[in-house]
Structures are given as structure tokens and as C-alpha cells.
Amino acid sequence: MIKYLAIIPARKNSKRLPNKNITKLKNKILFDYTLEAAKKSKLLSKIIITTDIEKLLKKDTNKVIYIRRPKKLSASHCSTESAVFHALNYLKNNKKIQVKNVIILQPTSPYRNDKDIDKSIKFFEQGKFNSLFSAYNDKLSIWKKNNKKYSPITYNLKKRKREQDEKPLIIENGAIYIFNYKKFFKHKVRLFEKIGCFIMNKKNSIEIDNKFDLYLAKKI
């Protein structure tokens, strides 16, 4: 029985930033930052790489299992959940391994490290959550548009507070998702029932989805 299984999904096609997962950030490709953080984690038992990128497919090791992601699950419209289902079913049918909890670690979060991973797992256990997402706090003035009219979502126009008096918003950062294995097959989504929120600092929360994100990450 694996208590915590990490899944790193790395798809080849990316519209906003071509070859995103193997793009260089300093002297390493983006994917390597996440794999190294997962390997350094003291609480992860196994790591699954599910990818259609030939460069990333290697021989299995004691801790890392590589799965070729099918073409039908690698299109831009395919969800991360579909790749996770495929990986978990492969593990069950081919490796005869049972899993208690799953952690999704997306390669787009290079500054999320092993300490963030282990702290989130401990937080997940302490809160007795069924699922969890990572986030950071920030103060943002967010508006919405409805029928050509604009209205603020995060504050009252007539009672606008000073920024230092505003309550920070919780911004999902895409770095860490943890969920119960059995309940995932029941709900078929990554967040369900009693949901926890693990707060990270803003720097470690950087998510690279476009060229400007990559530019910022390189500057940092």
C-alpha cells in the first residue's frame, strides 16, 4: 500500500507556450524542477510520470514509474483528470500496487519545492481532509463584465477600503493537489467533500503558462 503517490502530468502540446514542459529555465528544463522536488520529498513513496514527450520517457526506477500518455488523452481539450485516471488504472493493472492518497504535481510550478510538498501532506493529514489545493494570499481588485456593464467582485464601490485594510484573497496556484484515491474514482474530479487549502508564499506559487510567466521566473 502506497500512502502518497505523486503524479506528474507532462503533455507535449501547449498553445500559449510551445514545448512548455521542456522549456529551459536557467540550466534545467521546467519538468526537472518538479521531478527533483518530488524525489527529495520524504513523504512520497512513488512517483508516476505520465507523458507523451519522448524525451521524458525513461526506464522505471525503484521510486519513479514512466507511463506513455495515449494520444487520445494528450490533446489540448483533454483534462488532467483523464491522464490521472489512465495512470492509476495502469498502476493497478500492471504493477499490482494499492494507493491511499494521490498528489498531482504540475511541471508549471518550478519553485514549489520538497518542503512545500511535505508540509502540504502534513497539513492534509492534520486537517483530515478528503482533498486539498495549494494557494497563496494576495489583495486584488477584481471586476466582472455582465451585459456590457462592469462591477467589482472583491470590494464595495461605496465603501472602498484602504489596501492595508482589505482582506487577502485566496488564489489557487496549481502547484499541489492532494486527494483520496478511492473518493477520486467516485467523484471523478480532484477536489471534493472536505477540501483543505494549503497556503504557500507568492514566489513558490509562480505558475508558468505563457512567455511572460517564463520571463518573470527567469528574472527571479
Description:
- The chain is 25% helix and 29% strand.
- The protein has 220 residues and is an alpha/beta fold.
- The chain has one domain (2-135, 172-219): Spore Coat Polysaccharide Biosynthesis Protein SpsA, Chain A.
- The strands form three sheets. It has a seven-stranded mixed beta sheet, sandwiched between helices. Strands 2-3 form a two-stranded antiparallel sheet.
- A hairpin with a 2-residue loop joins strand 2 and strand 3.
Structure keywords:
single chain; 220 residues; alpha/beta; Spore Coat Polysaccharide Biosynthesis Protein SpsA, Chain A; seven-stranded mixed β-sheet; two-stranded antiparallel sheet; 25% helix; 29% strand
